[in-house]
């Protein structure tokens, strides 16, 4: 199973289209959205091609393939626009005898870890900075942001396949990777 991770779309139709092109080229089985899909948020600038209604419509076309969690910029009004559930603060996927704890990162993160077992994985967005590291007995992953990257990082997404997590820029160049 191949999983495709994006976070922090923030209503940018331009960058969502770029990410979905990569999703198709990667031939991933599922699209995992780690929050902040439609709204740019009061602390962020308006992103390129800011069109939340069109972003919602485009994401709805993939509703059968999407697993999503709520970000700090997501609200009930966003859920009204989307045809897949996205209001949970976290979701859990069982993957190759380990738990993947999916969340946005504003509640659960490196400083406030959920209950995880050895070799489980915390995957979140929110910081807009790509991370692929082992933290004590668990893995901490962040695909970065497809729309508003920080720290001089490129717009990026994550891929998990065969216990290898890769963070790639929108041209599919590997930025970081880690074997789980």
Automatic annotation (TrEMBL):
Limits of the Calcineurin-like phosphoesterase domain: 1-161
Source taxon at top rank: Bacteria
Keyword field: Hydrolase, Metal-binding
EC number: 3.1.4.-
Cofactors, names only: a divalent metal cation
Broadest EC class assigned to this enzyme: hydrolase
CDD domains in the cross-refs: MPP_YfcE
GO MF term (any one): hydrolase activity
SUPFAM superfamilies to which the protein is assigned, alphabetical: Metallo-dependent phosphatases
Family: Belongs to the metallophosphoesterase superfamily. YfcE family.
Protein name: Phosphoesterase
Organism: Marinisporobacter balticus
